[in-house]
Protein: Immunity protein 63 domain-containing protein
Amino acid sequence: MNFYDSFEINLINYIESYKSELEKSKFKFYSKTVGPGMGAIVELSNKDHNLIIINDRGQFFLDLKSKSELKNLNFQLNSILSYILFQNMENLDKVNRKQVLLGEEFPDLLTDPLKYYFIYRNEIKDIELNTQYKKIINKLQTERSKYLFSQ
Structure:
C-alpha cells in the first residue's frame, strides 16, 4: 500500500462514520485529492456550501467553501466556531477569548471536526460566507496568531 493511500483510507472511513448526517444535509461527493503533500482531501457539496475535509498526518481539518459571491472563499471551521461562540458569550474577558481562539473549547476538533460542524450547523447555516465575513475571520485569525506565537 502506498503511504498516501492510508491518508485516503483514514479520511474515507472518518467521513463514512457521518454518512447519515451528511445525507440528511444533502451533501454529495464533489472532488478528491490524494498526496503528495497534504495527505488527502475530500470535498463535499450541498446547496449552501462545500465542506473540504482534510487528513494531514492524522489530523482532520474542515473548511467551508462559499458557494455565493467569490467561490474561492474558504473558511476554517475553528475560526467559524470562535465567531459563533463570541456572538453567544456575554462578558467575554481576555482569558476566555484566548481559550476560544486557541481551540480549548473544542479539545477534539483535530480528530473529529464533523462533530462540531453538525453541533453548530444551524448557526453555520445562518452565517453568510462572503468577503465581509472573511474580513471578520481574518481579524480573529490575526488575534489567534498573537496568542500562538507570543510568549
About this structure: The chain has a mean pLDDT of 87. The longest helix spans residues 131-149. DSSP finds seven helices and five strands in the chain.
